[in-house]
Design a protein that fits this description.
Layout lengths: L1 H25 L10 H9 L2 H23 L2 H9 L1 H12 L6 H19 L13 H24 L6 H31 L9 H23 L2 H22 L9 H20 L21
Helix pairs in contact: 1-3, 1-4, 1-5, 4-6, 4-10, 5-6, 5-10, 6-10, 6-11, 7-8, 8-9, 8-10, 9-10
Length: about 300
């Protein structure tokens, strides 16, 4: 358990460093195009910063898989949620971002709410670990539909939304898909831990891979369109909320024991929503047809 938490903490730091590297590379690359996925990926990886970010993200993924194998999903996500504080500090100190008081308050409130949600959903020590396959299918289908709807809204709303908000919508969609991948990975670690190595060839491996690939493109485009720290933070929030919900619905993590704990979790969900609402700063309208320039300087 302690080793799992240590891996989760290392993953939190690495994930945010990776996002900041990828943001620096994505804004300097050509715009991601849905109709040209291979060319878009090649353009992204031609940026040394994006490639470095992807390598760091791959290392973070390995740490995440290790943490999921050693600790409950909701507890791992709680530790990752605290990474929002690392994001703010790293962004201001090393990546040239300036966060206003509103963004700092939003990040802090959201991180605190997510940590409370995660820490109050630990497994019941008197109950054997398990999972609900029907819930796994339902959660993954529902989230994929939600993410697709958000991405479609961002793309089709080009003439109605501010471009920064398109980026935020895509970031939330990418985060939801990252959450689906986390749930599928946790399921696979359960199966492998029970001796079912053949489960690695199951549809859940395909689900994890497909969600990760789609999220890769959605996240890269969101970093090109939206304000960096806000997009990264809301992507993380969406991923954590979906994964925590998966811990409750799929892996039967208890909602709480007693009125006080359950009420505290509901209040924490309110904090997450309030903090997320505070994160995006005031946005000015821009010309709807304008595309981000391939040589746009990083913040």
């Amino acid at each position: 358990m302690i080793l799992g938490l240590a891996l989760a903490l290392a993953c939190a730091v690495a994930t945010n460093v990776a996002f900041l590297f990828k943001h620096r590379g994505a804004v300097a690359a050509s715009p991601v195009r849905v109709r040209h996925p291979l060319q878009s990926a090649a353009a992204l990886f031609r940026s040394r910063w994006f490639t470095l970010g992807w390598v760091v993200a791959l290392c973070a993924w390995g740490l995440h898989v290790g943490a999921l194998a050693l600790a409950p999903l909701s507890i791992v996500q709680a530790v990752l949620s605290g990474g929002l504080v690392f994001l703010a500090v790293l962004a201001e100190r090393y990546f040239g971002f300036h966060l206003g008081r509103r963004q700092w308050i939003g990040l802090t409130i959201t991180a605190a709410g997510l940590v409370v949600i995660g820490l109050t959903s630990g497994a019941d020590p008197g109950k054997a670990p398990g999972y609900a396959l029907a819930a796994l299918i339902s959660v993954e289908c529902a989230v994929i539909v939600l993410a697709t709807a958000l991405a479609a809204a961002a793309i089709s709303g080009r003439h109605r939304f501010l471009r920064a908000r398109e980026g935020i919508l895509l970031g939330v969609a990418a985060g939801a898909l990252f959450g689906v991948s986390d749930i599928a990975l946790k399921y696979l670690t359960h199966a492998v831990g029970n001796g079912g190595v053949i489960e690695l060839l199951s549809p859940w491996s395909v689900a994890a891979l497909a969600a990760s690939v789609i999220a890769f493109y959605a996240s890269a485009r969101s970093l090109q369109l939206g304000p960096g720290v806000e997009v990264i933070a809301l992507t993380s929030v969406a991923a954590n909320l979906i994964a925590i919900a998966g811990g409750i619905l799929v892996f039967r993590d208890p909602i709480g024991t007693g009125t006080l704990e359950i009420s505290g979790r509901m209040a924490a969900f309110g904090l997450v929503i309030a903090g997320a609402a505070l994160m995006p700063g005031p946005m000015r309208a821009t010309h709807p047809a304008a595309e981000p320039q391939g040589t746009r300087p990083s913040p």
